[in-house]
Design goal:
Layout lengths: L14 H20 L6 H15 L13 E3 L6 E3 L21
Antiparallel strand pairs: 1-2
The structure holds zinc ion.
Zinc ion (ZN) binds next to loops.
């Protein structure tokens, strides 16, 4: 009797975060092996992202259903495309590098 009941919990974690955490940590190890000791911090950062990703909910879909909306960068609420400041969390939105004027 194995008593394995953890399989259902796999969907709870944020696989994107877990994956990027692993990649970051692997790069950190590579840099360490190459002798770039300060970049060994990436191992710690990567492990932190990994652990956070296991506890985090899955990512929201990248595209909102409404084409006139987009997701807040910070709280992931749907906001208007031209909304500069999120009405939910009050944080200024990051522009996609294309300034209109
Ligand atoms: Zn927000």
């Amino acid at each position: 009797m194995r008593g394995k009941g953890a399989e259902a919990e796999v969907e709870v974690m944020n696989q994107g975060m877990v994956l990027s955490g692993v990649i970051t940590a692997v790069f950190g190890v590579i840099f360490l092996l190459m002798g770039f000791l300060p970049l060994g911090i990436l191992v710690i950062v990567g492990l932190a992202i990994f652990v956070l990703g296991i506890g985090a909910p899955p990512s929201e879909p990248v595209t909102p259903e409404d084409p006139n909306k987009r997701f807040c960068w910070y709280c992931m609420e749907e906001i208007d495309l031209d909304e500069k400041v999120c009405p939910y969390c009050g944080l200024e939105q990051i522009e996609d590098g294309s300034k209109r004027d």
